[in-house]
Every structure is written in structure tokens, then in C-alpha cells.
Amino acid sequence: MDQRWKPSVTVAAVMERGGRFLLVEEETSEGLRLNNPAGHLELGESPAEGCAREALEETAHVFRPTHSLGVYLSRFQRPSTGEDITYVRFAFCGEVGEHVAHRALDTGIVRTLWMTPEEIRASAERHRSPLVVRCMEDYLRGVRYPLEVVYTDAAVKALSDSPQPP
Asked: Residue span of the signal peptide, if any (predicted)?
């Protein structure tokens, strides 16, 4: 049987300030998990734009991506249902801006936590993805690529301007 494989495209922010990284604690079907501020890329946005949006929605902090950390591939099998999901993650680092007071966190986000690298490594069993540690380690090793390494064609924006089927 021919079946086209369709990975889920996500974006993630590696947000560091003073040697601590901003993570979110979120409700999942597997319980409370720690993750980078991250989520699915939406119609009509570039990966960097999606990353900035997700960071604001999940942490209430303004985030401006300045560099790409990389493109990561991971696979997850949901214990409760056996669902098999492959993720393609575009991760970015950048400038952590102001905290927008009184902004509600995205649905499912319980709280944000500023954690040291040691605390993040020690809590690996609570991570939503093994990419939480991998992206942090790449950041700490100084991995940085220009934002232009991820090109978004103008047609992507045009798609968001077109009426979408219900």
C-alpha cells in the first residue's frame, strides 16, 4: 500500500538569559512535561515568525529569533494510543525581550520555568522530547546559523491570504 509520509512541522525557541533557559511545563496526554516554547508551524508564516509567535503565546515573553540552531528530526510513539508521529523541528535562538504582563499563557501551559543546564539535564525523564536537551546542548556549543539558512518563498504568505476551505 502506498501511503505518503507526512511529518509534523514544529518550531522551537531556545531562550537563554543569564545562564538559565526558559522552559514551559505543559499538560500532555502523558502527563505534565517540560518543553522548549514550541508548537506547530501555521499557514502563511515562516519558521522564524512561527517561533516568535509560539514563544509569546507559551511564555508571555517577546522573542526575536536571531539565529537558526538547526533542523531536527524525532519520532514519538504515544503510549496511550500507539500513535506514531515524526516531528521536523526548526529551532531558533535569539533575543528574549519584555515579559508582557497579564498575558494569559497558551492552553495547556501550566507555567514557565527558568532552569540551569544542569537542572534541564537532570529532568530529562520529564521532557516532552529528547530535542529539549539536544537543542540546549547545541546552543551551549555555540551552534549558530544565519536565519537565511531557512528560506521561505513568497508563495507561503500568499497562501495565508487565500480563502481556505472549511
From this structure: none
